[in-house]
Design a protein that fits this description.
- The protein is of the alpha/beta class and about 325 residues long.
- It folds into two domains: about 5-145, 3-Layer(aba) Sandwich (Rossmann fold), CATH 3.40.50; about 155-335, Vaccinia Virus protein VP39 (Rossmann fold, 3-Layer(aba) Sandwich).
- It has helices at about 5-20, 35-50, 80-85, 100-105, 140-150, 155-160, 165-175, 195-200, 215-220, 260-270, 285-290, 305-315, and strands spanning about 25-30, 55, 75-80, 95-100, 115-120, 125-130, 180-185, 205-210, 230, 245-250, 270-280, 315-320, 330-335.
- The strands form two sheets. Strands 9-8-7-10-11-13-12 form a seven-stranded mixed beta sheet, with helices on both faces.
- Helix 1 packs across helix 2, helix 1 (about 5-20) runs antiparallel to helix 5 (about 140-150) and helix 7 (about 165-175) packs parallel to helix 8.
């Protein structure tokens, strides 16, 4: 592996060991076929490196090990055989390795996972989920989000570039103020920037913010930097003054943030009273969920009722909500 890939593994394992509860902990790594053995071995080594005792369980006969034999250790097992026979009646931490659909096929097995790791590229693992009882997601959000998008930036427009007309249509429908200042938070490769510049006109201002340097590099390589001022920043802590913009555009942002309400609060902070918030995705929620092999829940942050509540609590008033198969578009006004 390259030095960068080694650092990625070290960073991920450090984030996982930081999440493990104090005291004796039983951990099982499942999914991704033989990769679960490799991940379990690396995790055990990382636990040892922190100074905690660690016991590795091997084989497929759980009866050969007794939890009393490692009462003070972190116990790490791997594979579906151990997953099906938890010590002490349960696993304290279940880690699920997510691979392409053809790679595991056990979609239900990840439902009760405490940590989900994207292992589409075995040299570049990324944490995509952790349960609330393992602590605040903000502890790993920054490093893991950057890692997730860094390797996808170069191919992003090849994969999703045909939705540019959908961006332009949504921005036109939103009715952004002419000559105003709009910020694209989580701008990615800058697909919205030409339409945002057209909406506010030559006397308006467009600011493009993203967390990932590689995404901003793609903005430049695609020639879209001419439409906006670029800023490398975290959407949770924007480098903009209070009430300094007339509108915020955010495509696919909220579902990536560890705290939806905190994110909406920050977007409200920078927006002038009466300003607009435009939340967009070029696929509807149901279509996007189906693409990722999951079903929608009525309490998801972008479902209409929860989103309306969150908007009200964070200084916004939801004025439009549209969620057909071909797009998601929600528009709110700053109160």
């Amino acid at each position: 592996m390259t030095a960068a890939q080694d650092r990625r593994w070290e960073e991920l394992l450090r984030n996982i060991t930081d999440m493990l509860p104090a005291g004796p902990v039983c951990v099982v790594v499942d999914g991704a076929g033989e990769q679960n053995l490799i991940v379990a071995e690396r995790l055990a080594a990382a636990v040892h490196a922190t100074g905690r005792a660690c016991t590795r369980l091997f084989g497929t006969t759980p009866s050969t090990w007794s939890p009393e034999s490692s009462a003070d250790a972190v116990v790490v097992a791997h594979g579906p055989h151990w997953r099906a026979h938890p010590p002490r009646g349960h696993w304290d931490v279940v880690i699920w390795l997510r691979t392409p659909p053809a790679g595991n096929g056990r979609k239900s097995a990840k439902a009760d996972a405490d940590i989900v790791i994207d292992l589409h590229d075995p040299t570049w693992p990324v944490i995509r989920h952790s349960t609330a009882r393992l602590g605040d997601r903000t502890r790993w959000y920054l490093t893991e989000s950057r890692a997730f998008f860094a390797t996808r930036a170069a191919s992003w427009d090849t994969k999703f570039g045909d939705d540019l007309p959908a961006y332009a249509a949504a921005i036109t429908e939103a009715g952004l103020p002419r000559d105003g200042v709009v910020v694209d938070v989580g701008c990615g490769t800058g697909r919205a920037l030409p339409a945002l510049r057209h909406a506010v006109g030559p006397r308006g201002g467009v600011i493009a913010v993203d967390l990932t340097p590689e995404m901003l590099a793609q903005v430049r390589s695609h020639g879209r930097a001419e439409y906006a001022a670029l800023a490398l920043a975290d959407a949770r802590h924007l480098p903009l003054a209070d009430a300094s913009v007339d509108a915020v555009f955010a495509a696919g942002l909220l579902t990536h943030l560890p705290d939806t309400d905190a994110g909406l609060h920050e977007l409200a902070r920078i927006t002038r009273p009466g300003g607009l918030l435009v939340l967009f995705h070029p696929s509807g929620r149901a279509a996007l969920a189906a693409r990722h092999g999951r079903t929608l829940s009525p309490d998801e942050p972008l479902a209409e009722a929860p989103l309306r509540r969150s908007m009200h609590q964070t200084g916004w008033r939801l004025t439009g909500y549209d969620d057909p198969e071909h797009r998601f578009l929600a528009i709110a006004a700053r109160r």
